[in-house]
Amino acid sequence: MRIVLLGPPGAGKGTQAKELVSKYGIVQLSTGDMLRAAVAAGTPIGLKAKDIMARGALVPDDVVVGIVSDRVDQPDALKGFILDGFPRTVPQAEALDRMLKTKGQRLDAVLELKVDPSVLLRRIESRIEQMKLRGEALRADDNPEILKQRLEAYGSQTAPLVDYYRGRGALRTVDGMAPIDEVTAAISKALADAALQTGSAGKRAGKASVARKSASKAQKTAKKPAGKPAGRVKAAIKGRSKTESKTRSKTPIRGRKSTGKRVVKAAARRAARGPQKGKKAKSARRLTK
Ligand code: ADP
Contact at 8 Å (CB) between 245 and 235? Predict the structure, then answer.
């Protein structure tokens, strides 16, 4: 199972991702956590991301796409994953589509956790309070001023993804304002619906593709010039089977009975088109004499 969790900061993505990890035995891939680890380790990516994250802005797409692509190739992600915090921009979503395609994988669902903006600020403030009480280190970007920037970045750069995925029929919206276990239940239901739909959508897509193929075949046949029927069509016209037709097409032209007549006719057609230069013209003149 491969899932994208979409939602603004404080929507509860981390909490729900943990539920999904234990329920489906898949891994949670949080780009925020990966970047924070890179910052803590002082890697080149971390050095690049540090100040950007502290401002509440988004790290460049190529940096994040690179770390996600490497991460989904790890053995523990083969069974499936929950992307938390990625994609965050339309170019990242497009890169994810390409990335999964080349790996022969696809998304099962995109879950949007919808929460009222006024609630988000309160949620994060209480998260900060609880972390302080537990003596945990606070995130550099967990303060009201930066939180506003993060919410703004979400509104302008990440919210358009809702339309991006809705347009692809992958989006499932869940009310993130409900109590945690109700949100978890709604997510389970959304994933079951998505699985059902993917199955029937797959069948529908299969039928549609068969229909498209036969329509395009019919179109191609219709487009063939009357004088040049090919392959199966040619055999059908002449009352020959496909095998006969194939055998015939492999027979050297010189060995065919009607070859003489056909060559003469073609030469006559060329001659009727007017004077020609070169070898072909010479043979046409010779044959039509
Ligand atoms: P939040 O709790 O606000 O959803 P995250 O922990 O997911 O935040 O990410 C924290 C910060 O890490 C972001 O504000 C941003 O600077 C950076 N970040 C995380 N994921 C991405 C991403 N996909 N693209 C760009 N920047 C990202």
Answer: yes
